[in-house]
Design brief:
heterodimer, A: 264 residues, mainly alpha, 10 helices, 0% strand, elongated, B: 339 residues, alpha/beta, Rossmann fold, Alpha-Beta Plaits, 2 domains, 6-stranded mixed beta sheet, 4-stranded antiparallel beta sheet, 31% helix
């Protein structure tokens, strides 16, 4: 049992290393992805910032915390594309014929993506700081917030893994990602307070995990700044943890099942 | 011509069956890829599945390497059931698929070390095996280069090296030399023929009769998901048109039947013909002198030849001899007779 577990752990690490090496060797994808996020951050700040009412604090203070959640949401769609690409090549047959633990191929990808999110988040915080964002709550809550965003990203990455292994085609995987990502990001408290939306949309936005994630990060970054509407640790922290656990409980087994069923 | 690669010390202690296939069937939609296939492979030999594209060779390899679950029937590999004990089969097999399965963004060395670690050899053993194999496959100089920069032949060699990292007792090679130039092909044959030491088994598929003949101790011929003949290369040559043949093409294919009649008067049976093209072939057991006999006989009958020569038999000759028709595959390159 112990031996099996240590073999599984070793397999996952080997596959993580493979994916990290590929990210380092093919930096274009990471660089353009980072640039896209930087451009979006600056656009939203300077184009909409003046027009959007957000209750007395500067717009960058309001939306940057949620923007980190958006970064990992978008990032998880790339996982679908990467998995679909791997499945389209002969290498997957070799991996499946090896005595490697069944979850290792997918889990290695997810962990490598967690590392990718950490780098993206640090970059976004740097750009945000240059655009005027300031922490108001000390270091420990900031670190906790970053850890929670990465956890959220990892949970969503399992959704991306499931889509990638289900559609098995890179272009389809790309489009399939957009379908669920845009409502998630925009019908939330990320860019505007929920109270400004029509009532039917408020119902969705209130239970949207991006709202919970954005609210949690705001509370951790800005403290009990009541002016920071949509920030409440008591209300949102448990919500996002329940979301993370729920998503992973559903999508990890589904994804691994799909992997095993490649033999059908 | 290369040496007879099968000239190796006989292995008397290898008596077990390493692969037992019992009534395996597999269907993809409307296509019956495998139809009740059964065969036994003794350990310590090279076994070759010979057949055209689409005959089911790859499907059978995928089932034996645990990549695909059969619809019906069963198979045992190294004594383990492919349905129930797939996890016990994986550590003892090595697979080289039809296309090189190596990571282009990693170096050759990184690829082999990764495979070694996934076989759970440990870091040290993985590194040692990697060094050995890069040496054997003449890739030491390229070991630290990304596979992206490798030529097709180098990728094939790395791919084969990857299958040997854990010294598997059963090696599966799916068309290992397809697409290689003759020199690389001979080199690979050399390596493959050395893999049966210590009762290890090699199970390979090929479209080339010549390849099966050179490498295999036993050959199974497949067509449309069925095994149509199993035997040693000698048996197949004897029964099924596997010897050197006289090949000709008529100027007027309408005269095919008449030409066959005339040639039969030379005392030959096993005359194969394709009336649509005017291609005729017959055994050349009388040596080159038969060429002049053929010319004289046909000339007397007023039949003109467009081409005439001696040729090594192709897979198609064997199919014609066994089934009376050409291998059913429009893209089959072996239809062209070798000049």
């Amino acid at each position: 049992m112990m031996k099996k577990m240590s073999a599984t752990f070793s397999d996952i690490m080997v596959m993580t290393k493979r994916n990290v090496i590929r990210y380092i060797r093919l930096p274009q994808l990471l660089v353009f992805n980072a640039m896209l996020n930087v451009v979006l951050l600056l656009l939203f700040n300077y184009v909409f910032g003046g027009a959007i009412q957000k209750g007395g604090i500067s717009y960058i203070q309001y939306f940057l915390p949620g923007f980190l959640a958006q970064t990992v949401v978008f990032g998880s769609t790339q996982t679908s594309v990467g998995i679909a690409e791997d499945l389209s090549k002969g290498l997957i047959d070799r991996f499946r014929s090896l005595p490697m633990a069944r979850p290792a191929f997918l889990t290695g990808r997810v962990i490598a993506d967690g590392i990718r999110y950490a780098l993206l988040i640090l970059l976004m915080l740097g750009v945000g700081a240059a655009a005027g964002f300031r922490f108001e709550n000390g270091l420990v809550p900031v670190i906790a917030a970053i850890a929670l965003v990465i956890l959220f990203g990892i949970a969503l990455t399992w959704v991306g893994v499931f889509i990638g292994i289900s559609v098995k085609n890179q272009e389809t995987a790309q489009v399939a990602g957009f379908v669920w990502v845009f409502p998630l990001v925009f019908a939330s408290s990320l860019y505007v307070p929920i109270a400004t939306m029509p009532v039917w949309l408020q119902h969705f936005a209130n239970v949207n995990p991006v709202t919970s994630m954005a609210g949690t990060i705001r509370a951790l970054f800005l403290g009990s700044n009541l002016a920071a509407g949509g920030a409440s640790l008591g209300k949102y922290l448990w919500q996002i943890l329940v979301w993370d656990a729920g998503i992973m409980l559903v999508f990890i087994p589904l994804s691994i099942r799909r992997y095993v069923q490649l033999a059908k | 011509m290369v040496n007879n690669l099968k000239a190796k010390p006989k292995q008397v202690d290898c008596t077990e069956d390493s692969i037992i296939v019992d009534g395996i069937s597999k269907r993809f939609g409307k296509i019956q890829a495998l139809d009740n296939v059964s065969l036994n492979v003794k350990e310590g030999i090279v076994f070759s599945l010979l057949g055209p594209n689409g005959s089911g060779k790859t499907t059978l390899i995928r089932i034996l390497t645990t990549l695909l679950i059969p619809d019906g029937g069963n198979a045992r590999v190294g004594g383990f059931d492919v349905r129930k004990n797939a996890a016990s089969i994986r550590p003892i097999i090595g697979l080289a698929g039809q296309y090189p399965a190596v990571d282009e963004d990693l170096t050759g060395k990184e690829n082999l070390e990764m495979i070694g670690q996934l076989y759970h050899l440990g870091n040290l053993k993985s590194r040692i095996r990697t060094g050995e194999l890069l040496e054997v496959f003449e890739l030491s100089d390229a070991g630290n280069r990304r596979v992206k920069t490798y030529s097709g032949g180098m990728r094939r060699r790395l791919d084969l090296a990857a299958t040997l990292v854990a010294e598997p007792s059963i090696l599966f090679l799916d068309e290992p030399t397809t697409g290689l130039d003759p020199r690389s092909r001979f080199g690979l044959w050399d390596v493959i023929s050395k893999q049966t030491e210590n009762c290890k088994t090699v199970f390979l598929t090929t479209q080339y009769l010549e390849e099966a003949d050179r490498l295999a101790d036993k050959i199974a011929i497949m067509e449309n998901g069925k095994i149509i003949r199993i035997g040693t290369p000698e048996e197949l040559k004897g029964c099924c048109g596997g010897e050197t043949r006289v090949k000709m093409r008529l100027v007027d294919h309408g005269q095919t039947a008449k030409a066959v009649e005339l040639l039969r008067e030379l005392g030959k049976d096993q005359i194969n013909s394709i009336s649509e093209t005017g291609d005729i072939s017959l055994p050349a057991d009388g040596g080159a002198s038969i060429l002049s006999d053929v010319v004289r006989r046909l000339d007397a009958g007023g039949i003109q030849l467009a081409e005439l020569g001696l040729a090594q038999p192709t897979l198609d000759d064997v199919f014609l001899a066994i089934t009376g028709h050409a291998a059913e595959n429009p893209a089959n390159t072996t239809l062209k007779s070798k000049k």
